[in-house]
Structure to design on (824 residues):
């Protein structure tokens, strides 16, 4: 049971992620872009942040960089949801402080397996 | 854990349509020589999201197609490719194509891929015709995904598994922890993979003195021995995210004598790993899942009209606020009622006034939930104008204002087609060709202005062009040709303009693809009338014409005029009433075929007695004692005879069809304050019932 922040500008992806994670017993907060996510993150600590890369206002890379500036997010696992075609985004994400990535498209089972790597 | 992904399909479709709208909008507004990064980012992001979602939810056809679109967009975004007109056209065509594919999928049909394949081939041709340098990005999909390939000690034997096990040396960089990666969790994962048959040795030789130590750094390194024949890929996966932040050496364990469980590589086990590592197999797996998911939609076909609406938080908050106040008023009244005596009548009245206030506000707020900005309809017009003006070889600019004007969702869905028609009409018939415009001293580029605003409880939409205006002669000759009027009739300008709304009327010299099929304006007017709205036309020869549509803000509530006939109450939609008059010796004529006709300011208005038309068994007053409500429908005026005018009020429309059955001349019913049911008059239905179908009677016809 972990507290997870799911960030994606696509409502369907967000719903899928949230539904899956809640189904596995986690507490999930949602944000539709980096700015919103950062706002939520500042008010409370999370056990994990799952973020899309391409988003309006503030993208996932920028979010990641900003989160790492916050004392309570220094070591928090941050996973980027990236598409396979964005190979250099992985490196960019790592440079910004991301813990790892989940390659889209993924199914609920893959999602749960992957987040198990960084929880607990 | 199995999750039924089809539950997210509806949301995916909705947001994909929105994304396509955003793409279209961005493409249309794009300045090709100086592309705004925010614009191209938005376009790219939309395509990217559609692709991602389609992949996740198993719509392979969409994923494949969107991938090439996205690749091209990515190159434009990165400045590697220049945007030009032909590319823009293909991209716009792709938006249409995707919309079609999504609609097919949504309604559960097998998507029609012909156009998509054609466009895809075009994109691929564009992509292949480029320089070496940017080529890899186009097929990045195929070589990525197996990030293990980046591993330094890849040797031929590795994919076959580790024989007896693995020896791993793991030397992290000091700042490893700052990426959120935690060695303990990684070891736990390895433990799971190896089912506990694992040894870990820790080295702390790099540990500095306490004073020199940074507590956030990692100074330890490890040697891990896995004494089980596990798949190399499983080990790689554990270290996948830290390859860049650590030295990782993975070697197969050979020759070491393992006391417990020698683990001979059984053929079955050896085969498995190689299967998993090859990327071919990797691609197969999702495909299987996809076809399974893709089969689902047909079982639940959905109509394309979206059944959900998005409501802003503000609106919901205000609603909750209202309900809060209503509850307070209710408890106040409740308390008052517990030991009521006549001395507190004033407080009761205050309370009731408060309740009325609350109810009205609540009603307004609830109605607002259904209200959406008209930009939902307007947004498709820039594309329409662009495409149409190209077909017509005219230069036309569309200027829109008042996009944020709000309108009921149902009304919005029904006003789209009439507006499309009117705009096309303005472009086709109104705006002149560039050389004609120049010859007339106008600028080459014509303008179509689309404006929306609120006016006394209605929404007004104006479509105004600066073209030639309505051609009176052409209209007249066409009308005579079609037998709508006779040659010797003299008509006012207004009446001439009105002719274009008559069924079977078209002035297009050529029957074009755009307009002029003769099914146009009468349908427009009928559709608008069905929404309780009106459409007017104004024209200034040589300067342009404008169409003005007035619509009620909502279909659920109507501003009504209550009238009585005998003991019955009827309601007229206030919007259709022109005036109400008492006869008092005014001219009443009896024209052949029509019962009574009233001469009202040079215009002859047929008179319909409401009691007679609905066969009401009432003792009717004489015409002189009655009141005549003059209403307008489809450009005609009719006088309806009623006994008395009562109040005006907003009424909530209840469907008669759903609760009883359809009745001609009645559009619905409502329940009045005293609990009685009042019927709402459908003006055009009433006119039809009474057999009133005279067109533009004027003095000359009557005299004849």
């Amino acid at each position: 049971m972990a507290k997870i922040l799911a960030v994606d500008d696509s409502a369907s992806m967000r719903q899928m992620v949230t539904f899956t994670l809640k189904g596995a017993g986690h507490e999930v907060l949602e944000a539709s872009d980096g700015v919103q996510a950062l706002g939520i993150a500042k008010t409370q600590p999370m056990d994990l942040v799952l973020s899309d890369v391409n988003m309006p206002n503030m993208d996932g890379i920028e979010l990641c960089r900003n989160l790492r500036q916050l004392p309570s997010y220094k070591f928090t696992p941050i996973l980027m949801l990236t598409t396979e075609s964005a190979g250099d985004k992985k490196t960019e994400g790592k440079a910004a402080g991301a813990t790892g990535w989940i390659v889209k498209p993924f199914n609920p089972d893959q999602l749960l397996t992957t987040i198990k790597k960084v929880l607990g | 854990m199995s999750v039924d992904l089809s539950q997210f399909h509806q949301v995916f479709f909705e947001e994909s349509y929105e994304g396509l709208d955003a793409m279209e909008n961005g493409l249309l507004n794009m300045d090709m020589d100086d592309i705004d990064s925010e614009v191209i980012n938005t376009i790219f992001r939309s395509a990217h999201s559609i692709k991602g979602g389609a992949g996740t939810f198993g719509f392979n056809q969409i994923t494949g197609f969107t991938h090439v679109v996205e690749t091209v967009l990515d190159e434009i975004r990165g400045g590697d490719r220049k945007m030009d007109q032909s590319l823009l056209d293909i991209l716009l065509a792709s938006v249409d194509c995707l919309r079609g594919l999504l609609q097919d999928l949504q309604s559960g049909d097998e998507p029609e891929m012909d156009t998509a394949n054609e466009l895809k081939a075009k994109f691929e041709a564009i992509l292949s015709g480029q320089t070496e340098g940017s080529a890899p990005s186009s097929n990045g999909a195929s070589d990525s995904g197996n990030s293990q390939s980046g591993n330094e000690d890849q040797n031929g034997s590795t994919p076959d598994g580790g024989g007896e096990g693995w020896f791993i040396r793991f030397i992290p960089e000091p700042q490893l922890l700052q990426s959120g990666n935690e060695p303990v969790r990684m070891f736990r994962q390895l433990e799971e993979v190896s089912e506990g048959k694992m040894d870990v040795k820790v080295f702390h030789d790099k540990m500095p003195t306490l004073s020199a130590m940074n507590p956030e750094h990692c100074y330890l390194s490890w040697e891990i021995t896995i004494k089980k024949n596990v798949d190399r890929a499983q080990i790689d996966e554990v270290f996948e995210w830290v390859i860049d932040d650590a030295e990782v050496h993975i070697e197969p364990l050979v020759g070491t004598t393992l006391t417990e469980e020698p683990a001979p590589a059984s053929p079955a086990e050896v085969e498995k790993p190689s299967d998993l590592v090859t990327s071919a197999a990797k691609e197969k797996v999702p495909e299987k899942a996809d076809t399974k998911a893709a089969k689902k939609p047909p079982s639940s076909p959905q109509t394309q009209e979206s059944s959900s609406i998005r409501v802003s938080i503000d609106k919901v908050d205000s609603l909750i606020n209202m309900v809060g106040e209503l509850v307070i008023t209710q408890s106040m009244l409740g308390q008052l009622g517990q030991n009521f005596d006549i001395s507190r009548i004033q407080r009761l009245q205050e309370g009731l006034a408060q309740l009325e206030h609350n109810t009205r506000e609540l009603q307004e707020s609830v109605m607002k939930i259904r209200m959406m900005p008209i930009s939902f309809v307007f947004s498709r017009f820039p594309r329409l104008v662009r495409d149409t003006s190209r077909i017509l070889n005219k230069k036309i600019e569309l200027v829109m204002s008042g996009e944020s004007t709000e309108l009921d969702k149902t009304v919005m869905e029904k006003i789209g087609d009439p507006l499309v028609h009117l705009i096309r009409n303005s472009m086709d018939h109104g705006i002149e060709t560039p050389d004609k415009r120049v010859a007339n001293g106008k600028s080459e580029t014509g303008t179509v202005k689309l404006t929306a605003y609120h006016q006394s409880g209605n929404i007004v939409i104006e479509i105004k062009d600066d073209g030639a205006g309505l051609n009176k002669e052409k209209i007249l000759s066409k009308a005579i040709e079609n037998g709508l009027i006779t040659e010797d009739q003299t008509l006012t300008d207004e009446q001439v303009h009105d002719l274009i709304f008559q069924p079977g009327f078209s002035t297009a010299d050529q029957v074009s693809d755009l307009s002029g099929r003769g099914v146009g304006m009468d349908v427009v007017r009928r559709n608008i009338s069905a929404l309780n709205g009106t459409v007017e036309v104004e024209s200034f020869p040589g300067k342009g014409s404008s169409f003005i549509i007035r619509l009620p803000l909502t279909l659920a509530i109507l501003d009504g005029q209550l009238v009585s006939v005998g003991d019955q109450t009827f309601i007229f939609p206030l919007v259709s009433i022109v005036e109400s008059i008492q006869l008092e010796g005014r001219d009443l004529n009896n024209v052949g075929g029509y019962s009574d006709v009233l001469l009202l300011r040079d215009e002859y208005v047929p008179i319909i007695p409401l009691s007679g038309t609905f066969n009401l068994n009432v003792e009717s007053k004489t015409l002189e004692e009655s009141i005549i409500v003059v209403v307008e429908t489809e450009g005609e005026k009719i006088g309806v005879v009623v006994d008395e005018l009562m109040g005006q009020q907003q009424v909530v429309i209840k469907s008669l069809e759903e609760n009883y059955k359809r009745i001609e001349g009645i559009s619905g019913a409502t329940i009045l304050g005293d609990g009685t049911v009042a019927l709402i008059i459908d003006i055009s239905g009433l006119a039809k019932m009474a057999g009133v179908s005279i067109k533009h009677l004027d003095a000359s016809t009557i005299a004849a």
